[in-house]
Amino acid sequence: MSRFRRRSAVLVVTGVLGTLVAGCTSAPDPAPPTSGTTPPATDGGVVAPVDTPPVGSSAGSITVDGQERTYRVYRPADVAETTPVPVVVMLHGLLGSGRQAESWYGWNAVADQHGFVVVYPDSRNRAWAVTEECCGASARDGVDDVGFVLTLVESLGQQLSFDPDRHYLAGMSNGGMLAYRIACDSSTFAAVTGVATTMLGDCPAPEPISVLHIHGTADETIPYTGGPGRRDGAGNGRVPDKADGPAAPDLVSRWRQVDECGAARTATEGSVTTSVADCAAGRGVTLITIDGAGHQWPGSETTAAGRLLGLDPPATELDATATSWQFFASHPRPA
Known about the structure:
By secondary structure, this protein is an alpha/beta fold. It is 24% helix and 23% strand. Strands 1-2-4-3-5-6-7-12-11-10 form a 10-stranded mixed sheet, with helices on both faces. A two-stranded antiparallel ribbon has the order 8-9. It is globular. It starts with a helix and ends in a 5-residue tail after the last helix.
């Protein structure tokens, strides 16, 4: 079985990159590393960050498979190096960056309030590689983004004390696809949130994991009803760009089977419908549907860059970051 069959997930890179995907932006390149600077790898493998991330926001790099990979970390002031704390890994969308995700989605403020670390990895070439058909130059070049994220979490956990039962993963769009790929291929994380995204590639025997999926019904980039979106290239472009996944309810149904869930309870408040299923061993699988919402991270700010690029405005009926943290906090790894 190829690496990409074991490790697949991403968003659509289209022939018209300048039109962008909401939540995925041509944000500035990541700042030069201010922590975690690494010496060259001697064996083509992994070199762990040397320095412990300081309090506040910082940038770092790590060498994985002979490639330097960059990331950002946010460490609240009250997070000590020796006290086990939760960690949230936030995966940006297509054409985005860790810096953009940190700036747009409000995770740092929530981390300050609740005392956890946030990690913002950077993709290579501004796209996460998941399947052989998607997405972008990273998929074309066979970048192992699953391996990068898992190695980064393990390495940073040597510098800061991450609670192994409270590793959490969130992803927007292309980043959500990678998040689901990681959930399919590893058991590192206790819970995952996917926003405006889908699943790509095979996932025959995943480990149980709590899942929160948030999706707007008017998303034309990654349709709520499944299938290719308006920017899908069917794999015929210069770089792999095929993103043709299941409908959001079918994706959630798959994870409810994996997690051995009971019947879902559904409630609607305004334009937001929440379907909650309690599952074996205290896990949970929740689908939040926002009627009329497009391809965006709900509750994030409308930015000048987003308006300039014609991105869908973020839904205001839900704060996806606060909602994700509430879900994560309620679903640590079962004992």
